[in-house]
Every structure is written in structure tokens, then in C-alpha cells.
Amino acid sequence: MFKPVSLLIGLRYTRAKRRNHFISFISLTSIIGLMLGVAVLITVLSVMNGFDRELKNRILGMIPHATINSREPFHDWQKLAEFAKKNPQVMAVAPYTQLQGMLAANGQVTGAMISGVEPQYEKKVSIVEKHMQTGSLDNLQADDFGIVLGETLALNLGLQVGDKMTLVLPEAAVSPAGVIPRFKRFTVVGIFKVGADVDGLLAYIHISDAGKMLRIGDQVQGVRLQLHDIFESRPVLMNLLSKLPDYFYGNDWTQTHGNLFSAIQMEKAMMGLLLLLIVAVAAFNIVSSLVMVVTDKKADIAILRTLGASPQTITRIFMVQGAVIGLFGTLGGVLLGVIIALNISDFMTWVEHITGQSFFDAYFVNYLPSELKWSDVIGVSFISALLSFLATIYPARKAAQVQPAEALRYE
């Protein structure tokens, strides 16, 4: 029967029940420290993945991946759309006209970005229709002067579907009464909720109504592009603009929200690095634990050596003990981290409900997102196991250097 001596003795030393219970306590604290470090690292990486996902799905679902604009309003946007769709990366194209103005209702005034859109095309480049709370983009009809608001905008202005509000543009208009701001009464025909800061910034009107407000008729300012791969937005845009006349120019999401995306990526990397130090500290505890075990077991080591155990056998004994600590710490941390990562969003929502506080209103999403990626779990597990293994080398080598005669002199 195969009985590996190094494995059996190493497992026995891990318990350390014979004389020194303090050694087993140190081993236990090493396991707990490693477990907590791994769990925290997995949880934080999952939260950062969640913010990354929400940025892509919500923010980048509402704003265009790229836009092609003209320095002057133009008519034949369909030709521009057909040209853009020849690029294999372009999924859909929609015309738009952008306005900046003030929305006023019930004695409240707030600024907003108002997009003039063609509903049937806007659905293909935006997720807004999927997040309508009441009404629909299809309710935006030419010459009806309807408006679709974000939920935050509607709440700030005290509006519901069917209510009237006033859109005031900064452009001045000359009338018999003098120079006055350009304004128009609109009817709320829909309210959307994405769960991000765009709920308090964006509003939609029909592109025909936007043309009347800006006095450009049925002309548009540009087209929005929906791409297969958002990270190819810049090369695709540059490629299209290089084939268009000089009066066309463009923007992509990296210019409007690229800093936010980069900040999340950098924060994820820095948090991962800092928390990895926690795992390293926990692995260092394995060194101290094994050094104490070696000191406690010098007599045992000497006896094993006199019975014929080689230095390599002694080294493997203590490497087994450290590996067991690392294995249990890593597995426990992975299990705890996965459980926390999968439930932290619901838990924080429950905490907000109990306390009546909103902890995430300052962020671009109003809840704590979390997305567990098994690649992160595998990576953290591998690094934790590797650090644990490396932590065993020094104590194991010290154990192998114990001289039997010296260790047994005072026994």
C-alpha cells in the first residue's frame, strides 16, 4: 500500500495536537487570513466588473457609439446612413438633431440635453425603448410636440405622462414684443428609467419638432452609429470620415465617456494590486507559522533524520503542511468570495431599504453592481496558491538544515 511519508507526517504536523496547541492556532489564523484576503479580492473585482458592465450596458446603451456630424444641417441623411452601413462594424444608423435647453414645469426649471430622433431608427441604436416605464418612443409623432423624459427629470419637474411642460432654448427670437427666448409647450408622452445618471440629463422629441425649434426644417445635424464592437469605434469613425467631405466631422464614446471607462479600469487594477498585498501578507503568516512549527519540532526532525529521512524528505514534510494551509485558505476564500459577490447587490439594496439611505446616488448607477467572472476567480486562486507555496520554501529549507546531534543534545 502506497503511504507517502512526507504527506502523512505533514498532515499530522498541521494539527499539532500532541503538545503545542498554539501552533495549531497559528495555522488556523493563517488559513483565516488567507481566506479573508482571497474573498475580499474576489468581491472587489466582481464589483468593479459590475461597474464596467453597467457603463457598457446602460451609459453606452443610451449614448451613441459614434456620431457623424455636418458643420451645416443637411437633408439626405439616408445616403450617409447607407454609406456608413457598408462598414461591417456598423450595426445600425439613426438620424438626430441635438438641442440644449431648459425644461420648465410646476415652478421648477432644469437643464437637459434634448435629442430630436426618428423613433423607428432610434430603437436600433439605443436601449431607451427597452427601459420605458410608461409610454413609448412611438408616441413621438411629427408636429405633435411630444417629449419623452428620463425618470429623474420627470420627478424633478413633478411631471407624469400627459402633463404639459415648456422647452426653452437659449437662442433668441425677435418678436413684436422684443427679443425673447425661443420656447414651446410640449406634452409628456413617455418616461424611461435606465438607472443611471442619464435619467436626469436626457430627453427625446421627434426630429421634425426639433427641426422646427431650430428652424432648420426637415434637415438633420448628423447620424448616430451603433457598432458591433464598441472598442473599435475610433478606427471605424476615422475610416468613415476619411472618405467623406471635409465638412463632416465625428465623435465617439471614448471622447464623451472614455475617461470614466479608463478610470474604472485603472481603479480595478489598483484595487486588485492593493488587495493582492492582503493575500501576500496572509501568505507571509504561513512563513511565521511554519517557522514556529520547525522550532517546535526540532526533536522530531532530528529523530526522523536518525531514522534515515533525507533532507529532501524533511523539506517535503513542511512544504506539505504549508500547502495544506494555503489550500484550505484559498478554497475557503473562493467559496466565501463567490457567495458574497453573487449576493452583495441584493444585500446593499436591503441595507438601503432598512436605513432609508441611498449610498450610490453619487455614481453613474444608483445601486451597487456586481458581476462574477470565473476568470478572476481562477486567477486569484492561482496567485493565492502560488504565494502559499512560495511561503513554504524558506521554513522547509530551514527544517532540512536541522542537525540531529544539536537538536537532541538537551532532550
Radius of gyration: 32 Å
Output the strand order for the largest sheet.
2-3-8-5-7-6
Helix-strand string = HHEHEEHEEHEEEHEHEHHHHHH
- Sequence stretches where pLDDT stays below 50 over 5 or more residues: none
Distance between the termini: 34 Å
Give the averaged pLDDT, no decimals.
Answer: 81
Biggest beta sheet attributes: 6 strands, mixed, barrel
Describe the structure.
By secondary structure, the chain is α+β, with helices and mostly antiparallel strands. It has 2 domains: 5-58 and 261-408, no CATH class; 64-255, no CATH class. It has helices spanning 5-15, 21-62, 77-84, 119-125, 151-157, 207-214, 233-241, 253-256, 258-296, 298-306, 311-355, 374-400, 404-408; strands at 66-74, 90-105, 108-117, 132-135, 146-150, 164-175, 178-192, 202-206, 220-227, 248-252. The chain has a 6-stranded mixed beta barrel with strand order 2-3-8-5-7-6, surrounded by 4 helices.
